[in-house]
Design goal:
The protein is of the alpha/beta class. The protein folds into four domains: about 5-130 and about 285-295, Rossmann fold; about 145-280 and about 315-325, Response regulator (Rossmann fold, 3-Layer(aba) Sandwich); about 340-440 and about 585-610, Rossmann fold; about 445-580, Rossmann fold. Bound molecules: beta-D-fucofuranose.
Length: about 625
């Protein structure tokens, strides 16, 4: 019998002995869920960095509770007890048990990223809560830690008022991306938006006692903070205890996690121990739900799920306590009423957009959702009018693809006042109040730009200068702004690369051709590369290059984004060199989000789609499989 079957048998037989034995071998602590007998189809491994922290314990509870709904699945937990090397060993041992999928919560991204990349080559990996570097995983579920730090800074500024405050920051594990990003968000916002000073940053390693001890040393040295920002509630409580020890009163304290348990953030705010906390969902339940979708090979799953965190202060803590204590699950409004979704499509400017519209229409039909889809013909004013009409029609949910990032506060406030949630599809908006929209569903455009730049760097090795023309998408649109940023981030690292000129396009083939004609007239054979923000403009550029008498894909390298079928045709015949996928097939995920919303289930703040890249060889092989 294989080791995997031994494990499954031991679990099914309800004995923990076998696993504790294994646990002894590896030094970590392990436990397993015991279910009734039954045919076990899947074995999931869950690797925790440390099951001492309250947030991690909550995550574990959620995973256990959710996994109990799946009778054909078993799960093995490991706890590295805050030892990074041990967590690597734990992951190896889980692999030796023959697990089908790994859920891993990461503290030290530097130590864990390599082993997770290795595992990802063999089985699906869900990274939960705290991130790893790069994209070597199937799905990341967490929240926006930089935004968490930014929100804490804004609360600190509000609590300190006009006086120049002295702040002590208590960080989590110094090697964790989560701590790094929270610190970045907090420090940048304090510096940019206030005259307060962060007089010291100490490391509490997520633990209450360590935070207490470190802070006592500072207070003993005579340091007198006006506010303490701790990156979790456990360390915030440690700070409180240190202040109490020195009989120091009036210092404001901000934490994060917002758990509803003894010494959890909700209770600490209720008691007035700390001034604010942020409910940061652990993602344990979603991790199990998506794990089962992955194991059942459900198509179109996202790459990243960013959960929304919520600020809790004395003004709203009772609301959250009531909702937790009533254990309100999903308060579905009316299960039988068909949902009405208003979608303000930005236009029909590209092949990508046509495929996007098709995906939304077909997914709505399959989901039994009444779709009102109106086309704004690439006019922001029309889009706003269409959304205003949806509000008058009392649709249940509004979704739209904002043409540009600016100018949406007004209409979004109208939707919010009407109590209609808004989902951003494929493009984001730039508004101060993040509660004006419920969720963003789309791609990581900055990463798309980086991928284009990275391929270019791998393609050009010689020290010869490489002159680049950039055909940008619509000015101030999220894809154009971010793809430019990501691409520049990479090419500026190579002294041989130079950007001859960037032309503002609008994602259309016609504009791509006209801009390329202009570039050829100005630079001619000096041009070595064209970087187009989408395939349609790249295809227009290819026509212009051929009419100019040069060979696209040979005389001039063509790289682009979207990965449409027409681009695959050009790649296959050597007229294009590389394209980065940006999936338009958002319909199924959009309808899932709409249904969850209507069933009272909180949907993630950001749902980032999973995408690949394609060179000529790959495109030739996959041409006939392209869905769009
Ligand atoms: O790349 C382009 C479309 O918003 C991601 O808009 C979308 C972009 C896409 O016109 O082809």
């Amino acid at each position: 019998m294989s080791l995997r079957n031994v494990i499954i048998t031991l679990i099914a037989a309800g004995t923990a002995i076998g696993l504790i034995m294994f646990g002894d071998l590896y030094g970590g602590r392990e436990e397993q869920t015991v279910h009734s007998q039954g045919n076990v189809k899947y074995l999931i491994g869950v690797s925790h960095p440390n099951l001492n922290g309250p947030w991690q314990i909550q995550m574990n509870k959620e995973i256990k509770k959710e996994i109990s709904h799946y009778k054909d699945t078993r799960v093995i937990f490991t706890d590295a007890v805050q030892n990074d090397a041990q967590q690597v060993r734990d992951i190896h041992s889980l692999m030796n048990y023959g697990i089908d999928l790994l859920i891993v919560s990461v503290d030290n991204a530097n130590t864990l990223t390599p082993v997770i990349s290795e595992v990802y080559k063999k089985i699906p990996v869900i990274v939960l809560g705290r991130g790893v570097k790069g994209y070597d995983y199937t799905l990341y579920i967490g929240f926006d830690n930089q935004l968490n730090g930014k929100m804490a800074a804004k609360e600190a500024i509000s609590l300190l008022g006009n006086k120049r405050g002295k702040i002590i920051q208590v960080e989590g594990n110094k090697d964790s991306l989560q701590a790094e990003e929270r610190t970045k968000g907090f420090e940048e916002t304090i510096k940019r938006e206030s005259s307060h000073t962060i007089i010291r940053t100490i490391n509490g390693n997520w633990m209450r006692d360590k935070a207490e001890d470190e802070l006592k040393l500072l207070l003993k040295s005579g340091m007198a903070p006006d506010l303490i920002y701790a990156q979790n509630d456990a360390m915030a409580l440690g700070a409180y205890r240190a202040l109490q020890d020195f009989k120091i009163k009036g210092v404001r304290i901000i934490g994060s996690d917002g758990l509803n348990e003894e010494n959890g953030g909700l209770r600490l705010v209720k008691k007035g121990t700390i001034d604010a906390t942020y409910i940061t969902p652990t993602g344990g339940i979603k991790a199990v739900q998506y794990a089962m979708d992955i194991l059942h090979k459900v198509p179109g799953l996202p790459k990243k799920i960013i959960l929304r965190d919520h600020k809790v202060t004395k003004n709203n803590v009772d609301t959250y306590l009531r909702s937790f204590n009533n254990d309100v699950t999903s308060s579905s409004k009316n299960k039988h009423k068909r949902i009405k979704l208003g979608f303000a499509q930005v236009g029909s400017e590209s092949e990508w957009r046509l495929a996007n519209t098709d995906s939304i229409v077909s997914a709505a039909k399959k989901s039994g959702i009444d779709l009102l889809l109106r086309n704004a013909d690439y006019s922001q004013k029309k889009q706003i009018d269409i959304i205003r009409k949806f509000i008058k029609q009392h649709v249940d949910v509004i979704a739209f693809s904002p043409k540009t990032e600016e100018g949406w506060e007004g209409i979004l406030k109208e939707a919010k006042e009407a109590g209609i949630p808004v989902i951003l599809s494929d493009r984001e908006v730039d508004v101060e109040d993040q509660t004006l929209w419920t969720s963003f569903l789309g791609s990581d455009f900055v990463e798309e730009g980086r991928r284009a730049g990275k391929w270019l760097s791998s393609h050009f090795h010689s020290a010869k200068p490489v002159h680049i023309i950039e055909l940008e998408g619509t000015v101030n649109s999220a894809p154009a702004v971010d793809r430019k940023q990501g691409f520049n981030e990479i090419i500026k690292q190579n002294p041989n690369f130079s950007l001859l000129h960037s032309y503002a396009g609008d994602f259309t083939m016609n504009k791509g051709k006209k801009l390329m004609e202009k570039a050829l007239a100005e630079y001619g054979k000096e041009i070595n590369v064209v970087y187009a923000h989408n395939d349609d403009m790249a295809l227009g550029a290819i026509e212009a290059i051929e009419e100019y008498g040069l060979k696209p894909g040979q005389d001039i390298v063509i790289i682009s984004i979207d990965a449409t079928k027409k681009a695959f045709n050009s790649l296959s015949v050597g007229k294009m060199n590389f394209t980065v996928e940006c999936s338009p097939l958002l319909g199924p995920q959009l309808m899932k989000a709409v249904k969850d919303l209507e069933n009272g289930i909180e949907i993630p703040q950001r749902i980032i789609t999973s995408e690949e890249t394609f060179d000529q060889k790959q495109a030739k092989k996959m041409l006939y499989q392209r869905a769009y």
